[in-house]
Write a structure and sequence with these properties.
alpha+beta, five-stranded antiparallel beta sheet, globular
């Protein structure tokens, strides 16, 4: 099961980088995942998920591949939670 979330934005790349780290930090606290930058992609790692957050000028992409049956049961709630939070952050920044 793969979650793919894309949003367009008109923020400078530095602002999107800060926003990306904020999202990753929140996911780390809520779901216990780890993250690290590799060039302009923020790689996301968890026992039940792997993916990335790609921040670029004009667009932000989050892709998470959920592994295992239990992870797939929560896919829609995880996706809606991340989408809502991303939308909030894009609107308030």
């Amino acid at each position: 099961m793969t979650i793919l979330i894309e949003r367009n934005h008109d923020f400078p790349l530095d602002d999107i980088t800060v926003l990306s780290e904020k999202i990753a930090g929140e996911l780390e606290q809520e779901y216990g995942l780890t993250w690290a930058w590799q060039e302009n992609k923020l790689l996301i790692n968890h026992a039940s998920a792997r993916g990335f957050l790609h921040s670029q000028e004009g667009k932000i992409t989050i892709e998470l591949r959920l592994m295992g049956f239990a992870a797939s049961l929560f896919a829609s709630s995880i996706e809606s939670h991340i989408s809502e939070r991303l939308d909030q952050l894009l609107l308030t920044n």
